[in-house]
Design a protein that fits this description.
The protein folds into two domains: about 290 residues, HUPs (Rossmann fold, 3-Layer(aba) Sandwich); about 120 residues, no CATH class. It contains 15 helices and nine strands. The protein is of the alpha/beta class. The longest helix has 18 residues. Helix 2 crosses helix 5, helix 11 crosses helix 12 and helix 11 packs across helix 14.
Length: about 425
């Protein structure tokens, strides 16, 4: 299992309040944080904070959770194969510079056979090279270490989390390991939820065909897992301790997460999913690996806005823009002009409702309001939260909602979330 953080509600949770495990796909530290990542992260932050007003919520999040998967290990191996120095100035690199390396890695494609033979850490070469590439990051992970390029990114992201007022600036680092791979695969095989064909030289598949979903590879014939196996190793041991599992992911991973939801449901869990769309840049939705994000990272646009509006307005304005402004489908491209408009809106909201120390009664009212609207989802929808904040409905407890969204509950004597 990985590191978790649990926030109490505005009052101590009662036996009737649901125990919710929020389990999003994590952003691996291999790339810069783009508007797509920021929309996802601030949505999760609001979902967690808002739901914690009426339920006991554990947020299972560790940016390094998939460190041994092919997606991450391949990038690390690519860098190691390029560099004579094991850490050639990574500690001084910006997010953008690391992002250029990540894009170059994907442009390079699978290495030639002779290159694979010359380096056991080459990511996409022969089976032996692939297995060796997997082994190194696994060993480093057990030792509590990671590639220096990812360590640098996590340091930069910690600064971003603090700037944005996110609830966990430590980024979930330092938790216990996931369950053993063979243990999880054995359980799934017993329940007819996976097909393990490694003895026949074939992959391991998740089997959700009874739900009309295709077989999904989780480990190749040589034992190299992908992120889904790491996800299941995190989740399966925890299921008995929660009433609801909320799986959060981007739209492009819908089929994968429908498969995971089927598997967890078959193991006895109640599962709901929360999807976040990718944000177009200049009219195009592209993965970070393809570039096109230059000038759109948090570091590229935050400085001037924080200087002009202040940190609190920036934090609220960015949340409102990315969630309410871009909406549930994000049809419009990220726009600096539109983001500035939401900064002005955020400033007006804080001027009217955000002054002084919040009263516990305001937070209690906000919790009741959010609980009444959670319904069958069992969690507070960030789109509804931001929509309520900018509505003209006099019944909306705007002051309490602002304090929940901004994370100021401790100022009213309500403890902040703690790790456990």
């Amino acid at each position: 299992m990985t590191a978790t953080a649990t926030a109490p509600a505005t009052a101590a949770p009662t036996a009737a309040e649901p125990r919710i495990l929020l389990a999003p796909v994590t952003v691996s530290p291999t790339k810069p944080l783009t508007p797509t990542h920021l929309k996802y992260l601030v949505s999760l932050d609001m979902l967690y904070r808002a739901t914690s007003t009426f339920a006991e919520v554990t947020f299972l999040y560790d940016h390094t959770a998939y460190a041994g998967s092919h997606q991450v290990a391949g990038f690390w191996a690519y860098l190691d194969a390029l560099a004579e120095d094991p850490a050639p100035g990574y500690e001084r690199m910006s997010e953008e510079e690391i992002g250029e390396l990540y894009a170059a890695y994907h442009r390079a494609g699978p290495p030639a056979p002779d290159a694979a033979a010359s380096s056991a850490v080459t990511a996409a070469g022969t089976a032996a090279a692939s297995a060796a590439a997997a082994a190194a990051p696994r060993q480093a992970r057990r030792a509590g270490e990671m590639h220096p390029v990812s360590a640098r990114l996590l340091d930069l992201w910690e600064e971003h989390y603090r700037l944005l007022g996110m609830f966990d600036p430590r980024l979930g680092r330092g938790g216990p390991e996931p369950a053993a791979e063979d243990e999880v695969l054995g359980l799934l095989a017993e329940r007819d939820l996976c097909i393990d064909a490694r003895e026949l030289g074939a992959p391991v598949y998740l089997d959700a065909t009874t739900a009309g979903l295709p077989l999904r590879t989780v480990s190749d014939p040589d034992g190299q897992p992908n992120y889904l196996l790491y996800l299941l190793r995190q989740l399966v041991p925890l299921l008995d301790g929660y009433d609801v599992v909320v799986l959060a992911h981007d739209v492009e991973l819908r089929t994968d997460y429908r498969t995971v939801a089927h598997v967890l449901t078959a193991l006895g869990a109640e599962v709901v999913r929360y999807e976040v769309p990718r944000v177009p840049l200049e009219g195009s939705v592209r993965s970070t690996r393809h570039g096109g994000w230059q000038g759109y990272t948090l570091g590229a646009f935050s400085g001037a806005l924080v200087e002009e509006f202040g940190a609190d307005v920036f934090r609220l304005g960015l949340r409102l823009y990315l969630v309410a402004g871009l909406g549930r489908t994000a049809p419009q491209s990220f726009s600096a002009e539109h983001m500035r408009r939401w900064m002005h809106r955020a400033r007006r909201l804080l001027d009217r409702h955000g002054g002084g120390v919040p009263a516990a009664a305001e937070l209690t009212a906000a919790g009741g309001y959010l609980a009444a609207r959670a319904g069958r989802r069992r969690y507070a929808d960030p789109y509804q939260v931001t929509g309520a904040l900018v509505s003209r409905d006099p019944a909306v407890p705007v002051g309490g909602l602002l304090q929940v969204v901004m994370g100021h509950r401790e100022e009213a004597g309500v403890p902040a979330g703690v790790g456990r």
